[in-house]
Amino acid sequence: MDRLGLRLRIALFFLGLGLGALALLALGLWAGYRHGDGGPQGYVTAGLAAGFSIAGLVAGVWYLFDENLARPIQGLATDMRLRAHAGTGGIDTAQARYLGDLGPAASALSRQLGEGAISAVEDLAGEAQHLRGERERLTALLSEIPLAVILLDDAGRLLLYDGQAARLLEARRPPGLGQPLSHWFDMAEVERVLAGLEPGQSAPIRLASADGHAVQEGEIRRMAPGAGCLLTLDAGSAHVAERPLAYDFSLPARVAGPMRDADLADLTFVIFDTETTGLLPARDAVVQIGAVRAIGSRLIPAETFDSFVDPGCPIPEASTRIHGITDAMVAGAPPMAEAGRRFLDFAEGAVLVAHNAPFDMAFLGQHARATGARLDHPVLDTVLLGAELLGSDKPLTLEALAERLDVPFPETLRHSALGDAQATAQVFLKMCRLFAARGQTTLGELIAVQKAHGRLLPDLNPD
């Protein structure tokens, strides 16, 4: 049977269906003739019996067709799409054993694609290594200079900041590429000084903090037209930065109009996870929040959020066995009122992404209701997105998705908020590439996908 061609196998399906229907109909007519005494009642009974039998036959043939042709073809298409657009795994030819030469042909194409990709990676590896070395040297150099370096675009948004600047800004709120400097400083002085500068000119500047409680001294330089300005601020003392240089010179323009109509490449995503004392938001509390930021399809390594949270109650031993967080580890940590505020500052203007989002969002919702914080971000859920891409009948745990998409997820990172957030981010960005290959490139299209799988988990976005 495995050696039969695909076209012959399909022909046999329908030949069997036709012959079976004729046989059942003939059997019904014969039974009506034998037991109906020549009257119409026997033939009616026989016709009904034959009709139901044919319906059962059709259902059986459909089941065989679905199991042996439709599902394997769908699985093969998924494997090929994953291979082509996410660079994952290979082709599972076992599922295509009844598809004739289609499975081996797809596997051969996958191998050829993989060889081409390896060749391209080898060609780029040397240049990438050179660029990494240059970036590391620049980061090390800036770390030794007791100045905070910030590059702004013409709209006053952060295009680049070094570790010194991150330390300076973080004292008030977590920094983020694309966020306006007005979150930290009064922009009136920046605009006043820039108005008197020509491109290439510099001037001293005294920046008042946004709350007016502090003043930061430094220098501002107007760059070439369209290139923004460069701020160098006194960082107090030489300090080796703990974080790499953060930059994005291709920062998208601010999204105009409804966010749902925006292209995914123009959006900022904050991918997050929480660890808690239990499973009930009304009774339990958060003990850790971890998050990473991505702009379009690029993770920003320097921009992470990782904070223990004082739950205000003992952590049950059963919960500690899962995430490893003890009462001693959260002693002295900020309460949820403060940690939640800083997290929402970190996530301002972003699309929130989580795995099993209703769980994490329920705890954030508790915080928002208790403090009056604004929580109206669009939400994407890798469970619902995975159901669309890989099938709702497949395992959709974070571990299963990471394995299916070839995302490294070592045991040491599992069930820590930041570790889970990092794995979810890698899974999500690969999913975005797969959706783009299907022509689904806007936030609204992904939300529509989630709503189509609402029987698995509720989609948290308003209609």
Summarize the structure.
By secondary structure, the protein is an alpha+beta fold.
Entry keywords:
Beta-Lactamase, 11 strands, 48% helix, transmembrane helix, 463 residues, 5-stranded mixed β-sheet, 6-stranded antiparallel β-sheet, alpha+beta, Nucleotidyltransferase, domain 5, 3 domains
Structure notes:
- With 463 residues, this protein is of the alpha+beta class.
- The protein has three domains: 6-113, no CATH class; 145-247, 2-Layer Sandwich (Beta-Lactamase), CATH 3.30.450.20; 259-452, Nucleotidyltransferase, domain 5.
- It is 48% helix and 15% strand.
- It has 13 helices and eleven strands.
- The protein is elongated, with a radius of gyration of 30 Å.
* Mass-distribution shape: elongated
What's the gyration radius in Å? Answer: 30 Å
Major beta-sheet overview? 6 strands, antiparallel
Look at the structure and name the CATH superfamily of the largest domain. Ribonuclease H-like superfamily/Ribonuclease H
Into which percentage range does the β-strand content fall? 15-25%
How much helix is in the residues?
40-55%
Total of helices: 13
Q: How many independent structural domains?
A: 3
Instruction: Please give the CATH class of the largest domain.
Output: Alpha Beta
**Number of distinct beta strands:** 11
Which residues sit in consecutive blocks of at least 5 with pLDDT less than 50?
Answer: none
Class derived from helix and strand content = alpha+beta
Ends distance = 50 Å
Q: What series of H and E elements makes up the topology? A: HHHEEHHEEEEEEEHHHEHEHHHH
CATH topology annotation of the largest domain: Nucleotidyltransferase, domain 5
InterPro entries: DnaQ, PAS, PAS-like_dom_sf, Ribonucl_H, RNaseH-like_sf, RNaseH_sf
Pfam family, one: RNase_T
Function: DNA polymerase III is a complex, multichain enzyme responsible for most of the replicative synthesis in bacteria. The epsilon subunit contain the editing function and is a proofreading 3'-5' exonuclease.
EC number: 2.7.7.7
